[in-house]
Amino acid sequence: MPLANSVILTIPLILFYGSIYVLVRAWREYHYQGQVDEWLAHIIHRAPRIAAILIILFVSLFSLDVFEMDASPLKILGAFLIHNIPSL
């Protein structure tokens, strides 16, 4: 269980430190060269979309606890959908 928790905890940490790294690297390139490399500009353009998808997956992990309930499948499905409203 601690291994699974540490893997889940790495998602927000990777997003946070990865975004800091990309922004600092882009600032340094712009500061020293006057422009940002095309590859780095492409990453900066795509990063918010990738981060949003990862955040949605991270938040959706918390809705999986409804499958441990002792209830009818319809109630479980309703609880699962209610838990995923923030993701939608």
Structural features, described:
InterPro entries: DUF7670. This protein is an all-alpha fold and 88 residues long. Helices cover 75% and strands 0% of the residues. The protein has 3 helices and no strands. Helix 1 runs antiparallel to helix 2. The chain is elongated, with a radius of gyration of 19 Å. The two termini are 28 Å apart.
Indicate the topology.
Elements: H1 2-33, H2 38-60, H3 73-83
Helix pairs in contact: 1-2
Supply the number of helical segments: 3
What count of domains describes the coordinates?
1
DSSP strand (E) fraction? under 5%
Global morphology: elongated
Distance between the termini: 28 Å
Radius of gyration: 19 Å
Percent range for helical residues? over 70%
Structure summary, number of beta strands: 0
Low-confidence stretches: none
What is the typical, i.e. mean, pLDDT? 87
Order of helices and strands: HHH
Structural class: mainly alpha
The biggest sheet amounts to:
none
